[in-house]
Specification:
The protein is 37% helix and 20% strand. The chain is of the alpha+beta class. The chain binds nickel (II) ion (NI).
């Protein structure tokens, strides 16, 4: 290897090291920024503008002063949504009179089929104070994004109105100020949910 080539290699290696150092510093800085999340503020939830089962416009601010139990799903869901909404209902029943401090909310991820009337009939199957919310595709997408909820139309059958939705299934407990407190994974026993809610009453 001649001297010129050696010098060239040294320069290239030095440049590469500098680039790596800059990248490493960026990653470390990002890590420091990321730690802000451990201070208790978790970015789940946020403002939404939707329509309730009576056709009335509703925003997240209408529920201030109540703890919110928020669940995203759809009325045609064959099993997961009814199971989770039943669990929510059972947990609220266990809270007895204190249940008035908690507003259960069901937000559809299938606004194409879940209009106010469909939601009105559906919510009667669960807790008497359950609010059903729908909206435009955009409004629903915005609310779902705020709550980090994934949803998508599953493959439609020959009948295009007969389809399933894939969706994540978490029940979110939000504070009286609309801030994230806690979430419950699928199949959380109502006893556990009620006990967790009680800590915030
Ligand atoms: Ni479902």
């Amino acid at each position: 290897m001649n001297k010129g080539l050696q010098r060239g290699l040294v320069i290239v290696l030095a440049a590469l090291s500098a680039v790596l150092l800059v990248l490493l510093l960026r990653i470390m800085t990002a890590g420091v920024d990321g730690q802000g999340l451990t201070s208790g503020e978790i970015a789940i939830g946020g403002p939404f503008q939707l329509t309730d089962q009576t056709g009335k416009p509703v925003s997240d601010e209408d529920f201030r002063g109540h703890l919110m139990l928020v669940y995203f799903g759809y009325t045609y869901c064959p099993d997961v949504c009814p199971t989770e909404l039943q669990a929510m209902t059972a947990a609220l029943d266990q809270l007895e009179v204190d249940a008035v401090q908690v507003q259960p909310i069901f937000i559809t991820v299938d606004p194409g089929r879940d209009d106010a009337k469909t939601l009105r009939e559906y919510v009667t199957n669960f807790h008497p104070t359950l609010v059903g919310l729908t909206g435009t595709e955009d409004e629903i997408a915005k609310a779902a994004r705020a709550y980090r909820v994934y949803y998508a139309k599953a493959q439609a059958t020959a009948d295009s109105d007969n389809y399933l939705m894939d969706h994540s299934s978490f029940i979110y407990l939000m504070s009286r100020e609309g801030k994230y407190l806690k979430h419950f994974g699928p199949n959380t026993p109502p006893d556990d949910m009620a006990a967790a809610i009680r800590k915030f009453l």
